[in-house]
Design brief:
- Helices cover about 55% and strands about 0% of the residues.
- By secondary structure, the chain is mainly alpha-helical.
- Helix 1 packs antiparallel against helix 2.
- The longest helix is centred in the middle third of the chain and has 34 residues.
């Protein structure tokens, strides 16, 4: 008997695997998962949804980082313990413009 109850390669029992739904290890067989054909199934759909969600999180984090860097460089001259009124207003306007631009581009395409 092979791995997980499958038949040993070269045995005379053919594809009979003694009731196990798992395939034997070796023998040159390729199942649909290893060849990438099963990714559209239920489990593959879950994985694809998780990957898409993680990509969206990464894209959002990159946008926030870019926003912080751009607006900080534009609005804050010398860092201190608090922001001046001018710096705070500049940062608010910069963030608003960035969000408006991102929404415009996203809705357009």
């Amino acid at each position: 008997m092979g791995l997980f109850g499958g038949t040993v390669e070269g045995s005379s029992s053919g594809d009979s695997n003694s009731g196990s739904k798992l395939r034997s290890y070796g023998g040159g067989e390729t199942d649909s998962f290893s060849s990438g054909q099963d990714l559209g199934g239920a489990a593959g759909g879950d994985i694809q949804a998780q990957v898409a969600m993680e990509q969206q999180k990464l894209q959002f984090m990159n946008q926030v980082h870019h926003l912080n860097e751009t607006c900080w460089d534009l609005c804050v001259g010398n860092p201190s313990s608090s922001l001046s009124g001018r710096e705070e207003t500049c940062l608010n306007n910069c963030v608003d413009r960035f969000i408006d631009t991102t929404l415009l581009i996203t809705n357009r395409f």
